């Protein structure tokens, strides 16, 4: 099997990573999404979920035995200690599973979408890095709307992530998502054409 050409894609909470990756998928590009993988490694029966319950108690479980994500989110973004603990537990599991999915990819290049690509230096496994960018006020507004979350919760998550400047420094390409979805889609389409030329 050829080594897949991996394009890292990142951006802060609510910046539009999913909106961008959905568009790449319309070009039949495989997308490995760290947020999805993060859900897979804590399904019932996994070591991940078992460890979380040991640490935070059964109150982080829903009646059906699955993880109550909203509950865990409250613990995790309230202070640095719980977040550091969860990151230490989950990040190696997430990384291992992402590598398996990348190896199974068969599209001309694959997108590795990771909110914490810069923070966790995952650009080391990528040929190029794409940053989805918009002003922090817009990020906040979109994330609050989507998650029905209060301002402080989203601000705490933003504070736990790299700054806009730090992310932009790591970028080979920037997708400006400060205006419409149509504009974002056009930029993805153009980037897709460029990337295809690089791999051919
Ligand atoms: C705390 C959890 C359960 C909250 O789940 P919830 O469904 O409410 O949110 P979701 O997973 O969709 O994450 C929303 C956004 O929060 C941000 N985020 C998530 N985890 C982290 C983290 N550890 N540090 C900083 N930002 C994070 C990302 O921008 C992400 O896209 C969940 O985020 C989680 O398991 N986080 C730890 C795993 C992780 O680090 N994931 C990030 C990708 S590597
Ligand atoms: N250009 C845009 N115009 C209006 N709404 C947008 C635009 N781009 C994204 N959105 C909306 O903003 C919200 C956040 O976008 P999206 O879920 O793609 O962000 P994300 O970077 O994947 O977020 P997270 O890190 O939280 O997973 C979604 O509800 C999405 O539909």
TrEMBL record:
Keywords: ATP-binding, Coenzyme A biosynthesis, Cytoplasm, Kinase, Nucleotide-binding, Transferase. This is Dephospho-CoA kinase. The keyword Nucleus does not apply. Its EC number is 2.7.1.24. Catalyzes the phosphorylation of the 3'-hydroxyl group of dephosphocoenzyme A to form coenzyme A. Belongs to the CoaE family. Its main location: cytoplasm. It is found in: Cytoplasm. GO terms for cellular component: cytoplasm. Gene3D superfamilies: P-loop containing nucleotide triphosphate hydrolases (3.40.50.300). ATP binds at residues 14-19. One of its GO terms (biological process) is coenzyme A biosynthetic process. Pathway: Cofactor biosynthesis; coenzyme A biosynthesis; CoA from (R)-pantothenate: step 5/5. It catalyses: 3'-dephospho-CoA + ATP = ADP + CoA + H(+). It comes from Alteromonas hispanica.
């Amino acid at each position: 099997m050829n080594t897949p050409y991996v394009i890292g894609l990142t951006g802060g909470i609510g910046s539009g990573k999913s909106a961008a990756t959905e568009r790449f998928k319309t070009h039949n590009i495989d997308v490995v999404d760290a947020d999805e993988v993060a859900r897979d490694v804590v399904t019932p029966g996994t070591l991940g979920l078992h460890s979380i319950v040991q640490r935070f108690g059964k109150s982080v479980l829903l009646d059906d035995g699955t993880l109550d994500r909203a509950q865990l989110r409250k613990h995790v973004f309230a202070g640095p200690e719980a977040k550091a603990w969860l990151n230490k537990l989950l990040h190696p599991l997430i990384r291992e599973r992402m590598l398996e999915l990348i190896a199974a990819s068969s599209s001309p290049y694959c997108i590795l979408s990771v909110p914490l690509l810069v923070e966790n230096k995952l650009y080391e496994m990528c040929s190029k890095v794409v940053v989805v960018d918009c002003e922090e006020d817009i990020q906040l507004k979109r994330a609050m709307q989507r998650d029905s979350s209060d301002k402080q919760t989203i601000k705490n998550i933003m504070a736990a992530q790299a700054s806009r400047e730090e992310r932009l420094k790591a970028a080979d390409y920037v997708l400006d998502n400060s205006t419409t979805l149509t504009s974002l889609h056009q930029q993805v389409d153009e980037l897709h054409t460029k990337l295809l030329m690089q791999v051919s």
